[in-house]
Amino acid sequence: MPAEPGLFRLRPEPDRAAAAGLPPNLAEAPVRFMLSAEVCTVYRRAGRTRKIHHLLYVPGLAEARELGRRLGRFGDLSSDGRPVLALDSRDLLENVLACGGHLVPAHVWTPWFGVFGAKSGFDALEDCYLDLTGHIAALETGLSSDPEMNRRVSALDRYRMVSYSDAHSPPMLCRETTVFDTELDYFAIERALRTGAGYAGTVEFFPEEGKYHLDGHRACGVRMTPRERREHGGICPVCGKRLTVGVLSRVEELADRPEGVPPEGEAGFRRLVPLPEIVGEILGVGPKSKRVQREIDGLVAALGPELAILEEVPLEDIAARSPLLAEAIGRLRREEVVREAGYDGEYGVIRVMEPGGPEPALF
Q1: What is the mean pLDDT of residues 107-113?
Q2: 351 FRET partner, CA 20 to 30 A, in 46, 103, 167, 188?
């Protein structure tokens, strides 16, 4: 049901049912929804097949229905959570604008479906969205890049860097997120993306954890840095096929700045590891195990939301429940982590405890 301008909330009955399953310290927190979707456009441009993912946003149900009516001519909107449209990216943006919405290019560097991806992307945003490029205000970093990497390309300075998680994975919704300092209002959030006023940065994965960070060939277990790929001529030394060019290489191809030189006035960001991954590492079990979920439920009930535990809760309060968890989160906050980068669809691994450190332990 409608809430603040352009935002929605659950109706009273399901809202009460949802709150009943939460710890008391979280039950009163307001939850709002923005109407959004992810779509894939597949089309030919400049002699190449382009497959680009986009995030779409509209302020109301009437606008959503009209956009669905327009886009339904180019694909089956009911076939998938991310419908495939036989439509040029520029024309998709035109339809979104006609319905009063806005569009954000999704995970812009990933090889297969990013607007700058090595497989089917472009070298400049203007090459993709043509005369409507000025209506793009933000770019989504994806798991395999972060704002620091994006800022090596000065042509992207005018765009806000945003970061989101797929809604098809509810427990992972805040593994990457965008922070705003605005009123609860769709139009205020859109305005923050366009002007920067009220945009407060992002929470990111360590980009090495993304599954396309480095170059490689997963079938052969070959993972390479950009320099190593160039030394091998882009060919897998095991099977002789072409390597998948990862995000880091693609950023370096288009970069015109050295590392560590952010533009003036940058909002900033922080890198985190999802709490289930940390707890799973400590316990020596998978992050999706029931044992981890029980521990997470207890931590959230005692200490507050996951992001607060990772960023704000005093370490001594965490140590009262688990000294080892407090040590791990302290290392995370200092970015003292062990990184094994992902490649060619294989997720990377970020560990907060050094190899050979404490044995898996109970809380």
Answers
A1: 96
A2: 167
Residue 238: C-alpha distances to residues 73, 86, 222 (Å):
45, 37, 8
Q: With beta carbons less than 8 A apart as the criterion, state whether 355 and 338 touch.
A: yes
AA letter at 163: S
* Nearest Cα to Cα of residue 175 among 183, 167, 187, 186: 167
* pLDDT, tens digit, 9 for 90 and up, residues 269-312: 999 999 999 999 999 999 999 999 999 999 999 999 999 999 99
CB 342, CB 213: distance < 8 Å: yes
pLDDT recorded at residue 363: 57
Distance CA 139, CA 250 (A): 16
Q: How many helices (DSSP H) and strands (DSSP E) are in the chain? A: 13, 13
Which positions ≥6 away from 282 have C-beta within 8 Å?
322, 324, 325, 328, 353, 360, 361, 363
- 84-96 confidence digits (pLDDT tens): 999 999 999 999 9
> Contact at 8 Å (CB) between 282 and 326?
no
Residue type, 210: G
- CA separation for the pair 262, 268 (Å, rounded): 9
Task: Give the pLDDT of residue 268.
Answer: 87
Residue 24's pLDDT band, with cuts at 50, 70 and 90, is confident
Portion of the chain with pLDDT greater than 70, in percent = 98
Burial 266-286 (b: 16+ CB within 10 A, else e): ebebebbbbbbbbbbbbbeee
Q: Residues near 50 by Cβ (< 8 Å), separated by ≥ 6? A: 41, 42, 43, 44, 89, 120, 121, 122, 128
d(CA 106, CA 100): 19
Q: Which residue has the tokens 């970069």?
A: 255
What does DSSP say about strands 338-340 and 349-351: parallel, antiparallel, or unpaired? antiparallel
Please give the Cα distance from 166 to 60 (Å, whole number): 21
Tens of pLDDT, residues 60-70: 999 999 999 99
Cβ neighbourhood burial of 333 (10 Å; 0-12, 13-18, 19+): middle
CA distance 161 to 51: 21
